[in-house]
Design goal:
The chain is α+β, with helices and mostly antiparallel strands and 129 residues long. The protein contains three helices and five strands, in the order βαββββαα. It has a five-stranded mixed β-sheet with strand order 4-3-2-1-5. The longest helix is centred in the first third of the chain and has 10 residues.
């Protein structure tokens, strides 16, 4: 059963990663390109080039989980960050939910905020509204 909550750390990968990658390919990408440990329980989010697919990869209870949401009529919101030079951004639980549900911010040009570990819950909810 997929059980994602605010207890996980969420990382949005902005590189164009081929979605032909499955468990092994994404695990190697996370290790090799992002220099992170894919088995530490962090959740990694990947978007397709046309923004119609969102893929979630994480390691939980001694196994890898890979799930995908495909939109048929609409597209996911393209995330824009102030620092576009990075490959991966730590985002909050609420940002992940907004992205997954396709909630569009009021200001189209508003940037996504990178999540700060010491932010309060109220600050997290306002970062995309």
């Amino acid at each position: 059963m997929i059980n994602l909550s605010g207890k996980f750390r969420y990382f949005l990968c902005t590189d164009n990663v081929t979605l032909r990658f499955r468990h092994r390919g994404l695990r190697e990408y996370i290790k090799g390109k992002l220099h992170r440990d894919p088995c530490n329980g962090d959740v990694y989010i990947f978007l397709s080039r046309d923004l119609s697919r969102l893929r979630v990869y994480y390691f939980h209870h001694n196994g890898e989980i890979l799930t995908e949401k495909i939109l048929h009529a609409h597209r996911f919101t393209h995330p824009i960050f102030l620092d576009e030079g990075k490959h991966v951004y730590h985002i909050s639980w609420s940002s992940f939910v907004y992205l997954l549900e396709g909630i569009i911010r009021k200001e189209k040009d508003e940037y996504f905020d990178e999540y700060e570990e010491d932010a309060t819950d109220g600050d997290e909810l306002q970062e995309l509204v």
